[in-house]
């Protein structure tokens, strides 16, 4: 079988549609999956533009769901030990770690595994088995991938609509130890900010203030439970600080600030929103967007606990799937998908994401 794929061959240039052979019988422990839907993540735009060092050519796409077409010898169960068969609808953790390095084994920071690889990011498309990204008709899942059988009641749209943002946010918020009754500021109203609103609410946040834009995104943040939204384009920096602090009890600031913007200047601004002794989670700086001026004095004086968080582990992907199954009615992530494209239209899909036209764009092969 030949499989069509959208391939990033040169940074900043249009993706090319190429064909690769899909293995009829995957190697032992591997799986061949027919892609049902692949999400376009903001990270894909950064990768496309060459802002992260990755090998080329690559098939982009790390938020994917599909149906098992064939299983390699020995692969009979998903990550939870539930039986797997051809025809099953599955999702999977998009990264694979070694399990034996200093960070995996000794320091329990597997997201920083020295040999970590990710579908749609770190595998070359010109090396067999080629199909290691979501923007394709088929994807080959390597031995050791954390595969999850999707429950029948959980729509593919919800899984892909929530995407890696939900996994990343669950991991990040876990690191902050957000407590019941906390006042939370979420900076940014893109997919990560939206997921942060949902997870913070379910984790017990009493009040959630979102700074972001444009208005259609703030509207969605309110639908997901934000109590107050502040449009960063309409309210200049100084007034914004006052507006955020005024929205917190006593004007003292937030217990937890979650940065989901990606622009470096958001980090010192977020620290201004923290109450004394509060927590700041820097989550949005996945791409290296450069330095920013800041006053470290603020960290000392306000006794801020600063947290960073990178990626996710399989258990966070599982937590996200269970979250969507349990709370999907309150947080309709599937409805955030506003644009659908074929593989041939992958460039339009990337452009829609880059220009923030879309709530969420997906590729449906
Ligand atoms: Zn992503
Ligand atoms: Zn490792």
| Average predicted confidence as pLDDT | 96
Helix content: 25-40%
> How is the biggest beta sheet arranged?
7 strands, mixed
CA radius of gyration: 20 Å
SSE run: EEEHEEEEHEEEHEHEHEHEHEHEHEHE
Weakly predicted, low-confidence segments: none
The structural class is: alpha/beta
Beta content: 15-25%
Topology:
Blueprint: E1 2-8, E2 16-21, E3 31-39, H1 42-48, E4 58-59, E5 64-71, E6 89-92, E7 95-96, H2 102-106, E8 117-118, E9 138-141, E10 147-149, H3 156-176, E11 183-187, H4 191-202, E12 207-212, H5 215-223, E13 228-231, H6 237-246, E14 254-259, H7 266-273, E15 274-282, H8 296-302, E16 305-308, H9 314-327, E17 337-341, H10 346-354, E18 360-363
Parallel strand pairs: 11-12, 11-14, 12-13, 14-15, 15-16, 17-18
Antiparallel strand pairs: 1-2, 1-4, 3-5, 3-9, 3-18, 5-6, 6-10, 7-8
This protein binds zinc ion (2 copies).
Architecture overview:
Helix 3 packs across helix 4 (191-202) and helix 3 (156-176) crosses helix 9 (314-327). Strands 3, 5, 6, 9, 10, 17 and 18 form a seven-stranded mixed beta sheet that branches. 49% of the residues are buried. With 365 residues, the chain is of the alpha/beta class. It has ten helices and 18 strands. The protein has helices at 42-48, 102-106, 156-176, 191-202, 215-223, 237-246, 266-273, 296-302, 314-327, 346-354; strands at 2-8, 16-21, 31-39, 58-59, 64-71, 89-92, 95-96, 117-118, 138-141, 147-149, 183-187, 207-212, 228-231, 254-259, 274-282, 305-308, 337-341, 360-363. It is globular, with a radius of gyration of 20 Å. Residues 41, 43, 62-63, 164 line the site of one zinc ion (ZN).
